[in-house]
Amino acid sequence: MGRPTLNSVAEAAAVSRQTVSNVINSPDVVSPETRERVLAAIEKLGYRPNTAARQMRTTRSQIIGLCIPPSGNGVSGVVLDQFLHSLTATAERFDHRIMLFTAADDEAETAAYADLIASVGVDGFVLTNTHHDDLRTRWLLERELPFVTFGRPWGAEDTHPWVDVDGAAGTRLATDHLVRQGHRKIAFVGWPEGSGSGDDRRAGWAAGLAAAGLGDGPRAAVFDGVEGGRSAAGRLLEAHEPTAFVCASDSLALGVTAELRDRGIRPGADAAVIGFDDTPTASVLGLSSVAQPIADVAAECVRQLRTTLRGEAGAEPATTLFTPHLVLRTT
Amino acid sequence: MGRPTLNSVAEAAAVSRQTVSNVINSPDVVSPETRERVLAAIEKLGYRPNTAARQMRTTRSQIIGLCIPPSGNGVSGVVLDQFLHSLTATAERFDHRIMLFTAADDEAETAAYADLIASVGVDGFVLTNTHHDDLRTRWLLERELPFVTFGRPWGAEDTHPWVDVDGAAGTRLATDHLVRQGHRKIAFVGWPEGSGSGDDRRAGWAAGLAAAGLGDGPRAAVFDGVEGGRSAAGRLLEAHEPTAFVCASDSLALGVTAELRDRGIRPGADAAVIGFDDTPTASVLGLSSVAQPIADVAAECVRQLRTTLRGEAGAEPATTLFTPHLVLRTT
Fold first, then answer.
1. DSSP state, A300?
2. With contact defined as beta carbons under 8 Å apart, do A214 and A184 qualify?
3. What is the pTM of this model?
4. How many contacts (CB atoms, under 8 Å) link A and B?
């Protein structure tokens, strides 16, 4: 038997982890019977719920928590490896450690924060995949817990430290390059509106067209993946006959090149395609792509979090926006 | 200031982490002057060196250490994501956590073990990339520390628990399939001799040829990567004109298909190519490949380590060999 955790309380009370977390953080949303049962289990096991902020101020575990996203991110998954390695190596230089955990959604992730703080005494968190109405950052801010995000607080004020890559600058670089090559019909293949990074990448392409006096360009929004890129390219080719494609990801770009080839259009010769993320697959296939300085992002996340943990953060949250660069290959 | 660690001792004594570890574990290899300095720093900082085994038996941190390999594994990197996610999720079900660390080589990894045990009180370790003369497993065995490896103890007895995938069975499946398709000149593209998993994969191909009465087949050994696959395919085609290729990795297989295309040989139509690892890139490009049940491997690693930690392991180390399966696509 180890220390009692959210898991063991949940098991003892025959409820979910989320319910235990609710009893601790938002007791009103739990029925009185269930609440009783969970509180009894907490007492019986000696679980210390939500000693979070107190514990954080008095002791230092030197441990940083990171929620590892489910795999299946397609070819972009490799970017996570780079991020994890740089994060771990930088943390070690500062005598900190990275502890992994999983969570099915934002709410489960906040339950995991509470658990990690109570059971392990984690010092702070690095968050990835920020998005609009991010309840994780709200939850951490309310409790004044140290964290940093890889990703801007989309649609919200700069109320916490963040590190990000300027996606708009990346697609702008791609678009400017295509304009210089003489392309006039430059399409954008991206994701449905509403995702912070997706809208950001589309904005860079639109700004590039505007700067070149090319007005509105043709664009398609699909879910990420090779099939999405394929269908988007098909529709765009039939309606607008673009000669170049700026894509929000390498997966989309691979779909576009596949569709072009199927139609007898040679990527790199008859049409240009530029992806985003510079995955190993892009390198293998000769796909031009926008490269993010992922190792730098991870190192900066650790440095910012360390500043917070040492109580050396200024009045304004630290924010760092890295500029990506363009890797030109055969497409 | 957090707890003193190997790092802070190393810094205070102006020596490397390895030197501190040597002073603790093999003092004879360190000069008396350096030893003095390191011991003084240990005393001054209150570092608890090598309380390892003792600490492990009395307390449980519920933390499992995993050394994260440097990225740059090419298209195979994504397999690590799957492994990490499954490892973390399974550990959580048993109320354990995964802590990451980095190490440049085996010796640095053992120094990190000592540090993690002394500073964090890690319960045990999961090791990847086992190899001949693996000094990590020897180090852990000598100290009776709990661990499990993803990978067999190549060239050594089964002296510790391990989980692995039967690579030979995978290349045998690939070879048998090609034989059934009517191929008679089936080449193998693998790595230089001496790597456990590489030799294993080559053995499966050789066994498949022998079973079909095809004798010795043409083969080439190169370092992993697309360029290696390319040059191996070129040499094999010129010397032996094989019609099919079994490859030790998807990276090699991608190089083979690229070389075939450059020579006007259509993969899937004029020649068959089968990779190994079933990476997302293979899926995107329609490359046939041998798929490893990575999530199952990770989950089994946690289960075996848990058995050891609970003192429930039998007299013989637990060993689990998973069988891979063949994913046929267009090549």
1. H
2. yes
3. 0.79
4. 129
Antiparallel, parallel or unpaired: β B288-291 and B325-327 = antiparallel
The answer to whether the beta carbons of residues B180 and B314 sit under 8 Å apart is no
- The question of ipTM being above 0.90 is answered as no
Q: Which of B1, B68, B280 sits opposite A84 (nearest CB)?
A: B68
Find chain A residues with C-beta within 8 A of B284's C-beta.
Answer: 74-75, 226, 251, 254, 281
Confidence of residue B152 (pLDDT cuts 50, 70, 90): very high
Percent of chain B with pLDDT over 90: 59
B-chain residues near A101 (CB < 8 A): 88, 92, 97
Q: Which chain A residues touch B5 with a CB distance below 8 Å?
A: 62, 95
What is the rounded distance in angstroms from the CA atom of residue A99 to the CA atom of residue A120? 10
Distance to chain B for A43, nearest Cα, Å: 18
| Residue in A62, A88, A251 nearest the CB of B101 | A88
pLDDT of residue B1: 47
- How big is chain A by its Cα radius of gyration, in Å? 23
Please state, in angstroms and rounded to a whole number, the distance separating the CA atoms of residues A91 and A64: 8
Task: Outline where chain B has alpha helix (H).
Answer: 6-13, 17-25, 32-45, 52-58, 77-93, 106-119, 135-142, 167-180, 196-211, 226-240, 250-262, 280-285, 294-309
- Smallest CA–CA separation between A214 and chain B, in Å? 33
Q: Which of A71, A89, A95 sits opposite B85 (nearest CB)?
A: A71
3-class DSSP state of B150: strand
CB atoms within 10 A of CB B321: 13
Going through chain A in order, the beta strands assigned E by DSSP cover 63-67, 97-101, 124-127, 147-150, 162-165, 186-190, 219-221, 244-247, 272-276, 288-291, 319-322, 325-327
Domains identified in chain A and CATH numbers: 1-23+30-45 (no CATH), 61-166+294-322 (3.40.50.2300), 167-291 (3.40.50.2300)
Q: Which residues of B touch A80 (CB under 8 A)?
A: 81
Asked if B78 and A95 come within 8 Å (Cβ–Cβ), the reply is no
The runs of H, that is alpha helices, within B49-195 are 52-58, 77-93, 106-119, 135-142, 167-180
* A77·B8 Cβ contact <8 A: no
Structure tokens, B30: 């360190």
CA distance B207 to chain A (A): 31
Question: CA–CA separation, A286 vs A269, rounded Å?
Answer: 13
Instruction: Report residue B79's pLDDT band, with 50, 70 and 90 as the boundaries.
Output: confident
* Amino acid identity for residue A285 in this structure: L
Instruction: State how far residue B138 is from chain A, nearest Cα, in angstroms.
Output: 25
Q: How far apart are CA A146 and CA A310, in angstroms?
A: 10
Q: What is the pLDDT of residues B271-321, one digit of tens each?
A: 999 999 988 788 878 899 999 999 999 999 999 999 999 888 888 899 999
Between CA A97 and CA A309 the distance in angstroms is 14
Contact B102 A88 (CB under 8 A): yes
Burial (Cβ within 10 Å: 0-12, 13-18, ≥19) of residue A245: buried
What digits encode the pLDDT tens for the residues A27-86?
A: 777 788 888 888 888 888 887 654 444 344 445 788 999 998 876 544 455 578 889 999
Minimum-distance CB partner of B88 among A7, A68, A81: A68
> What is the tens place of the pLDDT at every residue in A212-262?
999 899 999 999 888 899 999 999 999 999 999 999 999 899 999 999 999
Structure confidence at residue B27 as a pLDDT band (50, 70, 90): confident
